[in-house]
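B., you asked whether I could sanity-check this one before it goes into the benchmark set. Here's the sequence:
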Amino acid sequence: MILDRFRLDGRVAVVTGAGRGIGAATAVALAEAGADVVIASRTRGDLDQVALSVSGTGRTALPVPSDLSKPHECAGLARAAIERFGRLDIVVNNVGGTMPRPLTSTTVEAMEEAFRFNVSSAHALTVAAAPHLVASGHGAVVNVTSTMGWAAGRGFAAYGTAKAALAHYTELTAWDLAPRVRVNAVAPGSVLTSALEVVASSKVLRESMEQATPLKRLGDPHDVAAAIVFLASDAAAYITGALINVDGGLNSPNLDLRLPDVQEAGA
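And here's what the prediction gave me:
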């Protein structure tokens, strides 16, 4: 049965940034497909809520409160999976994000922080997990990049550049870890998470973004989670080094920050 290839029974996944939004939806979706999950984010209360949802599927979640801006804490999640479950099959590098800001206000330190949070953290966990993923026989890594990793818009120099780096990192590591481990990525567009709370609270802004999206709606975290489950499963057994856009059909940003020209800003 083709649906059997989407099952993850007996496998173990690590999901970063799993306290809310895309990470939380992904952790529960992986559990619904049969996997036990190690879930990490900064806030213990958020993780406990996700763990409760996972337990409702009949699977087990191990919450690991972590400061995922520190790559060594990301790397430690691989060890946590082995110590608790004895194996590791799937890594979902979901942690990341950087607040948009004008280019002339983007310091070198802000750029380096964006890379550490969006790229170095993923690299640290991927390298730590690699031996276990190889041993699994079903090893899969899914990186969460962004539409802003390929689309150009004002205010996203640090975030978009870091996400573009993560997308190319996906292609490079797919070669490095083939044929035993597959590495793919998803690129979400505008998804209704806490990061877009200002959009959800503004009817005018939300409608503007929806109208600029071919599918005429903003994304739901479960839209992204479904793509991640696919890439993590044997249904995608012949896919590596790929990036799936989960963005409603965007070919340009649907959020205009209305930043002035540099000349107008007096820079």
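One thing to flag: The mean pLDDT is 92. Otherwise nothing jumped out at me.
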